[in-house]
Amino acid sequence: MKPIWIVDDDQSIRFVLEKALAREDLPVRSFSSPREVLAALDGGDTPQVLVSDIRMPGGSGIELLATVKERLPGLPVIIMTAYSDLDSAVSAFQGGAFEYLPKPFDLPKAVELIRRAIDESLREAVGDERIAQMPEMLGQAPAMQDVFRAIGRLSQSHVMVLITGESGSGKELVARALHKHSPRGSGPFVAINTAAIPKDLLESELFGHERGAFTGAQTTRRGRFEQAEGGTLFLDEIGDMPFDLQTRLLRVLSDGQFYRVGGHNPLKSNVRVIAATHQNLEERVRQGAFREDLFHRLNVIRLRLPPLRERREDIPALARSFLQKSAKELGVETKRLSEAALARLTAFDYPGNVRQLENVCHWLTVMAPAQVVEPKDLPPELLVAPAPPRPPLPALAAEAWTDGGAEAAPAVAAVQPVPATGVWLEDLEREARTLLDAGVPDVWDALTRKFEAQLIHTALDITRGRRIEAAHKLGIGRNTITRKIQELGLDD
């Protein structure tokens, strides 16, 4: 490990920290001015952590911080400051310092803070190395490794592929990887979302049109099939394609020929088609909304992309990658996630999948107040994660309430027992393990609040907001449900 650098013009401060860190078997190097630090950096030396005073002859710690951060953006810098300097220090080093250490400081706490900075430095170094080596897609989860192996096996193939997965799970990334590693990789990759284009325009978008084919067609236009000639055409959300256009698409896939709208001369198509959908195409076929012969034509090789909640082990690497990407785009320093914040990110279910995680990381880059993101800095939707929809509860007998100010217990008729699937208990166990393993404080309170909030929200939804009826169904009193609604913020 590289040494911790101590920068202070006060020899006694340097001596105390040197001895304390030496007792912890941590290497130390001391400097009496910022000039000495810059000279050491110019000579090629770098620290694991930099601890600097704020006021020194020949330069301030804030100026040193700015200079060091330009050269070593990932280096944790701790600023030592007297209480009289605290306001200026806090406002000045928000752009990069790891933490501040007010003087006079408690020595064990100072050592603990330096150890935290070391851990952060080592973690960031590993993360940077992994990101530098990252391919266009990443994932250590077994399901994603299966996808990567399939891409490798298909690298020399021209076969059609159908990619299935929830919205935001990265289907276009897989399609691009299939194209990039195929014999057509030097050709064009053309993508079209068939659900995003009105039916009247989709045919022209796909196949092009001749001049005068319809009102407004003043010039001949090449469609996506022509644009993708020699390469790959990615048809996203194929399950939403209008039925009559499915017939035209089937003809192209079968014959390798198509006509522009309003055209009379057939055009040859040399295009590999990759399709994707978030829908169950077998069910769409049974409903008569999707042609069975087209389904079988597309479904030569099927790749299923898992939702993010099924590959939680990939969330830390994805989050760090997205934070780096956002910081680079905005020209700011990369935010870092505390262990508790990372545990919250990992426990969330992400209905929007990888796309939602990327949006969260962009939000944190803009909105998080400090360089190290804590749980309180996360977006509101991550602080109380919504539970997945549950089947409606069985209706109870008519309620009987007593009058008066005291809380009365509802009379509940017997109901038929509902077979327990155990799925929600498995979800609860998984989330509890994630939070407990990460050392998140107040796990009992956090999970209890989620549990109570979801129960009350579901009961109110079933009773269309009638609180007394909802309390009756839950088997609690009317005063209890009113108090809980206020405590859990469900009135908002």
How would you characterize this protein structure?
The chain is an alpha/beta fold and 492 residues long. The chain folds into 4 domains: 4-126, Rossmann fold (3-Layer(aba) Sandwich); 152-305, 3-Layer(aba) Sandwich (Rossmann fold); 309-383, Helicase, Ruva Protein, domain 3 (Orthogonal Bundle); 388-492, Orthogonal Bundle (Arc Repressor Mutant, subunit A). Helix content is 46%, strand content 12%. The protein has helices spanning 11-23, 34-42, 61-71, 86-93, 107-132, 142-153, 171-180, 199-207, 224-227, 243-255, 281-286, 292-298, 315-330, 339-347, 353-367, 380-383, 423-437, 443-462, 467-474, 478-487, and strands at 4-7, 28-31, 49-53, 55-56, 59-60, 77-82, 99-103, 161-164, 189-193, 232-236, 257-258, 267-268, 272-277, 301-304, 336-337, 372-373. It has a 5-stranded parallel sheet with strand order 2-1-3-6-7, sandwiched between helices. A hairpin with a 2-residue loop joins strand 4 (55-56) and strand 5. It is globular, with a radius of gyration of 30 Å. Mean pLDDT is 81; it is low at 128-135 and 385-422.
Strand tally is 16
- Spans of at least 5 consecutive residues whose pLDDT stays below 50 are 128-135, 385-422
How large is the radius of gyration?
30 Å
Give, in spatial order, the strands making up the sheet with the most strands.
Answer: 2-1-3-6-7
The shape, in one word, is globular
What is the helix content? 40-55%
- Label the structural class: alpha/beta
How confident overall, as mean pLDDT?
A: 81
Q: What's the structural domain tally?
A: 4
**Gap from first CA to last CA:** 51 Å
CATH homologous superfamily designation of the largest domain:
P-loop containing nucleotide triphosphate hydrolases
Which CATH class of the largest domain is shown? Alpha Beta
Main sheet, how many strands, which sense, barrel? Answer: 5 strands, parallel
